[in-house]
């Protein structure tokens, strides 16, 4: 059986004596429980096998730090998230072994299988760590907070690239907002407080416009004289420049005019159409109709009064005419 153990050691690549899992206290407590009480109880009849399994477990975990250093494998450091995933995988495997009553060869096979699965999981997680976490910046200076797998200490690591992150060309219509965006995708993941400083080139030299925590600079209602060259810097908590962007801004005038035409002025008094129910204004057609009706009524009344007066006077004069006629007699 010894040759199988050493074959496993070779497959895991574990000649070293330090590993990332030794930096996780929970994993180390579980490992001591596995190599102590559990193996002594399960392999009491085969002390040689128990000793070899204990050595295999110890050296396998420490040997994870000896994987080939490269872009897709391991760099000797690990972040807290990846460390938590590796530790969780190890604890699940050990717990599964201890919860079952494995004996002798079956126990040995389960331990071997678990160690091989642990190595594969660690390799895959470290490849993901390399792609997504470790130095993803293509430019600038990015600061990480990682766990050193050799010293088990949290330290700051700097990923240094060219500070210049390129040039952007912006075209803005006059009276629109001019927005300078200094943020890069890796800025948020870079460790520590950050600030941004914006410059404008005037007369061949740069002048500081603003410095603050915001990655955006907004100029309301851009004018033609806002055209020109700008630059922004991202600074870390120590004031070191971590990245810079250049901008070439062109403000285009409005078509046909250099300025936006003003709103037309309001000329003359404000007039509103009369409501439907309002009377006709004086002198309109409605006035003549009223006066015709009034005149006709008054004429008719005067005619009636004159007729009545004439009839009354006629009746008063008739007796006088009878007494004055010849041969007239007065009755007594």
Q: How would you explain this protein's 3D organization?
A:
By secondary structure, this protein is of the alpha+beta class. Among the domains are: 2-132, no CATH class; 163-252, Sandwich (Immunoglobulin-like). Helices cover 40% and strands 22% of the residues. The chain is built from six helices and ten strands. The chain has helices at residues 2-12, 25-42, 47-63, 80-98, 104-132, 285-324, and strands spanning 77-78, 141-148, 153-160, 164-173, 178-181, 195-202, 205-212, 216-219, 228-235, 241-252. The strands form three sheets. It has a five-stranded mixed β-sheet with strand order 4-10-9-6-7, with no helix packed on it. A three-stranded antiparallel β-sheet has the order 1-2-3. Strand 2 (141-148) and strand 3 form a beta hairpin. The chain is elongated, with a radius of gyration of 53 Å. The N and C termini lie far apart (183 Å).
């Amino acid at each position: 059986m010894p040759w199988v153990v050493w074959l496993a050691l070779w497959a895991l690549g574990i000649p070293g004596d330090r590993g990332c899992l030794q930096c996780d206290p929970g994993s180390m407590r579980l490992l001591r429980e596995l190599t102590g009480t559990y193996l002594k109880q399960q392999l009491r009849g085969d002390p040689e096998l128990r000793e070899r399994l204990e050595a295999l477990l110890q050296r396998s975990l420490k040997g994870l730090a000896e994987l080939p250093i490269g872009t897709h494998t391991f760099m000797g450091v690990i972040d807290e998230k990846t460390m938590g995933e590796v530790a969780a995988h190890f604890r699940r495997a050990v717990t599964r072994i201890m919860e079952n009553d494995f004996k002798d060869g079956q126990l040995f096979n389960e331990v071997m299988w678990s160690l091989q699965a642990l190595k594969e999981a660690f390799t895959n997680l470290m490849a993901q760590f390399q792609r997504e976490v470790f130095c993803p910046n293509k430019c600038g200076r990015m600061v990480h907070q990682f766990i050193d797998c050799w010293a088990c200490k949290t330290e700051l690591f700097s990923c240094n690239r060219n500070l210049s992150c390129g040039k952007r060309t912006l075209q803005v219509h006059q009276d629109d907002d001019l927005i300078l965006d200094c943020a890069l995708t890796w800025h948020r993941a870079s460790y520590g407080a950050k600030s941004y400083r914006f410059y404008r080139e005037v007369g061949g030299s740069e002048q500081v416009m603003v410095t603050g925590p915001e990655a955006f600079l907004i100029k309301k209602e851009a004018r033609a004289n806002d055209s020109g060259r700008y630059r922004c810097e991202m600074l870390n908590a120590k004031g070191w420049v971590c990245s810079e962007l250049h901008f070439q801004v062109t403000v285009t005038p409005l078509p046909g005019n250099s300025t936006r035409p003003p709103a037309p002025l309001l000329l003359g008094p404000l007039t509103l159409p009369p409501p439907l129910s309002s009377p006709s204004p004086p002198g309109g057609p409605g006035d003549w109709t009223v006066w015709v009706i009034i005149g006709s009524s008054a004429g008719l009344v005067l005619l009636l009064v004159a007729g009545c007066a004439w009839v009354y006077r006629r009746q008063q004069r008739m007796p006088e005419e009878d007494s004055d006629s010849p041969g007239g007699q007065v009755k007594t």
